[in-house]
Amino acid sequence: MFSPEGPTLRELAVQALSSVERGYDLLAPTFDHTPFRTPAPVLAAVGSVLERIGPFDDGLDLCCGTGAGLDVLARVCRQTATGVDFSAGMLDVARRQPPEPTGCRVSWVRADARALPFTPAFDLVVSFGALGHFLPAELPALADGIHAVLRPGGVFALPVLAPPGPGSAAFWTLLGFDAAMRVRNAVWRPPFVMYYRAIRFGALLRELRRAGFRVELYALPEFGRRADGSPRARLIAARRLP
């Protein structure tokens, strides 16, 4: 699963026994050599949809990590792209590998996604692979915070994958991972919040609508369809109502 440049098992164990912030500070130098980095095909597919539903002037990458999503923002935003993350280590790596120049000004801010320090200054907020770091009880505040930093008509975009079926190895792998994390957090402090199945698709849509978004779903055809004909991957595009 990991390249030779990626973290060792010992380094991953130390990270897992740290807080989320400290864990990602430790993982930052090797993060891009792990499967946790958002794959390029996902970034490209999301960028293609955003180009169709734009234009956008100012974008925010929520929980930007080492900056993979900033490449998308620099592609679809005409003025500014801002990355926000609470891990100083991840931001340091992101600053050292900025997006290719497009005329869009890029900046980085260290802050907690649950308490964003921005006015309604963005037309687009994106997030890739960060939802598992929030507990279901935090979802209302997260949705309200994203709503608060978007201008009226602005879009929150979040790619989601269809959950694997109970008969698949992936289903039991994710279930086992979440169970292990719950045991870890029950016996060890500080907690490390990372769950693959804690926040359900329906609950997420309900909270976005409650917060004042009109939610649209776009299939990402690059990833095919399941046996029942539904897309394997979708982009949630939640538009802030006036």
From TrEMBL:
UniProt keyword annotations, A-Z: Methyltransferase, Transferase
CDD domains: AdoMet_MTases
InterPro entries per the UniProt record, alphabetical: Methyltransf_25, SAM-dependent_MTases_sf
Keyword Transferase carried by entry: yes
Record's keyword annotation contains Isomerase: no
SUPFAM superfamilies to which the protein is assigned, alphabetical: S-adenosyl-L-methionine-dependent methyltransferases
Gene Ontology MF terms: methyltransferase activity
Pfam families given in the database record: Methyltransf_25
Gene3D superfamilies xref list: Vaccinia Virus protein VP39
GO biological process terms, semicolon-separated: methylation
Domain Methyltransferase: 60-154
Protein name (Swiss-Prot/TrEMBL): Class I SAM-dependent methyltransferase
Native species: Streptomyces mexicanus
